[in-house]
Amino acid sequence: MTTVLLVRHGLTATTGNVLTGWMPGIPLDDRGQAQAAALAARLAPLPLAAIVSSPLERCQQTAAAIAATRDGQPVLVEDRVGECHYGDWTGKPLRKLAAEPLWRVVQAHPSAVTFPGPDGESMPDMQHRAVAAIREWNARLGQDATYLICSHGDVIKAIVADSLGLHLDQSQRIQADPCSLTVIRYTPMRPFLIRMNDRGGGVEDLMSRAHGRGPAMAGRAQSDAAVGGGTGGADHAGPPGAGGPSANGTQHADGENRQPDPVTPSSPSAPSGRQQSAVTRG
Asked: Is 79 buried (19+), middle (13-18) or exposed (0-12) by CB count in 10 A?
């Protein structure tokens, strides 16, 4: 089973306000740097076969913070997990874009969207190249590998939709917050979504068999879905509640002690009159 950690980049000064796309010179702000450092510390116990990043600065900075805790492990650049090419929408305020007729299509039928202008990309093409990249990295690194890809909100949502067998139009029901962690395990038959938009969980259950953790399954059993709900990893991750809750953590029903996100920025305002819309944030 190949385990892929999908990390969205941390906050920038424009996150949630401007559709930056492939604009250069959009670094993490102080909040984003703090988020990246906190995530790096949380992931530090987990061996990573590779750290892969979108070429855009905000992703490379987030990935570099994670690599900095790993004795100089390199960050490998992968263009195919870069942001969607938003064409003429690039650099425009989201409030202005919300008045465009295409905005409603993006919300309801992203599979029908090609962004305007000579550099505009279709959302299905974005999904195709990102999923193809995941599959190729899985094959390159091998079935026992655990590795990380730092990417962007719309790209991660498209990858998650593919892993769940959902039509791309359903991707707008998926959330990928800044510096959140989404985990997918790929088996010979099907992917399994292990976590989505996680901002505080531990990593013990993500350890591979090669490091003495994880379920020992072989052959078709790796691809079999649990019938009856399964143990949730309790048979290999220790008894529920082992160690008890920490001073700042929350003890969950699965026995995992999860820390709150050390950075809790106020949520950016959604476009006026569309508070319930899924926002393309970059």
From this structure: exposed
> 81, 86, 88: which is closest to 58 by C-alpha?
81
* pLDDT, tens only, 183-217: 999 999 999 999 999 998 788 888 876 555 554 45
Strand 2-8 and strand 181-186: the pairing is antiparallel
Residue 211 CA to residue 227 CA, distance in Å, equals 27
Residue 3, H or E segment: strand 2-8
Phi, psi (deg, nearest 5) at residue 62: -65, -45
User: Residues in the chain with pLDDT < 70?
Assistant: 209-222, 224-282
* Entry pTM: 0.79
Residue 159: in which H helix or E strand, if any?
helix 153-163
CB 39 within 8 A of CB 198: no
Half-sphere exposure of 38 (CA within 13 A, CB side): 23
Query: Counting Cβ atoms within 10 Å, is residue 279 exposed (0-12), middle (13-18) or buried (19+)?
Result: buried
Which helix (H) or strand (E) is 32 found in, with range? helix 30-43
Ordered by where they begin, the domains of the chain are 2-211 (3.40.50.1240)
User: What's the pLDDT at 189?
Assistant: 94
Predicted pLDDT at 244: 36
SS (H, E, C) 176-227: CCCCCEEEEEECCCCEEEEEEEECCCCCHHHCCHHHCCCCCCCHHHHHCCCC
Residue 105 CB-half CA count within 13 A? 11
